[in-house]
Amino acid sequence: MLVGGKRVTRQAFPKPAKSALSTIHRVKVTIHDSKPPIWRRLELPSAMTLDLVHETLQIAFDWEGYHMHVFETACGPFGSPDQADDWLGWADEATATLSQVAPAETAKIVYVYDFGDDWQHDIMVEKILAAEPGVAYPRCIAGRRAAPEEDSEGFWDDAGSPEDEPFEPGEVTAALAQISAVIVAEP
């Protein structure tokens, strides 16, 4: 099977780890082939389901959600059942958590958005950490460059890849407030 165009060994889909309820995944999400790189560093609840990871990425990259998407993982592809045809063959993204498909540091999954423009987002797990008391997740802690506009037809359209537009992580974190929650560690 392929994840981001690279052959990987298919892994069994694990049961959710109880520890995922009180940890976060610090991930770096980079739009594949963007030069200079367009990226976001996000802290996501480890137990976050992929449908909510999709919502988070839509906000972080200022996408509008107009197009189909899929997560390519070593456990197989996951996407929205509302978008799936019989030939697509992906599992429901609401049934998989980040900790199940990216269980360790350095694990990589790929989020593909807009099959026409083919925006591939490489998601690399940098660290798995205990959630900080009183902090709402998900949150954006860093990033670089504004994302290309929706329907900009990829990087070959210079207008779709703003070089000098500033990026403000705090604005993304504020926008993520609609899906954020404070993680309470189990005693």
Secondary structure blueprint with pairings:
Elements: E1 2-3, E2 6-7, E3 23-31, E4 39-45, H1 50-60, E5 69-73, E6 76-79, E7 91-92, H2 98-101, E8 108-113, E9 119-130, E10 136-137, E11 139-144, H3 169-175, E12 181-182
Parallel strand pairs: 6-7
Antiparallel strand pairs: 1-2, 3-4, 3-9, 4-11, 5-6, 5-8, 8-9, 10-12
Characterization of this structure:
This protein has 187 residues and is mainly β. The chain has a single domain (2-182), classed as MM3350-like (Structural Genomics Hypothetical 15.5 Kd Protein In mrcA-pckA Intergenic Region, Chain A, Roll), CATH 3.10.290.30. Helix content is 12%, strand content 32%. It contains 3 helices and 12 strands, in the order E-E-E-E-H-E-E-E-H-E-E-E-E-H-E. It has helices at 50-60, 98-101, 169-175, and strands at residues 2-3, 6-7, 23-31, 39-45, 69-73, 76-79, 91-92, 108-113, 119-130, 136-137, 139-144, 181-182. It has an 8-stranded mixed β-sheet. A two-stranded antiparallel sheet has the order 1-2. A hairpin with a 7-residue loop joins strand 3 (23-31) and strand 4. The longest helix has 11 residues, at 50-60.
Relevant terms:
187 residues, mainly beta, Structural Genomics Hypothetical 15.5 Kd Protein In mrcA-pckA Intergenic Region, Chain A, 8-stranded mixed β-sheet, two-stranded antiparallel sheet, globular
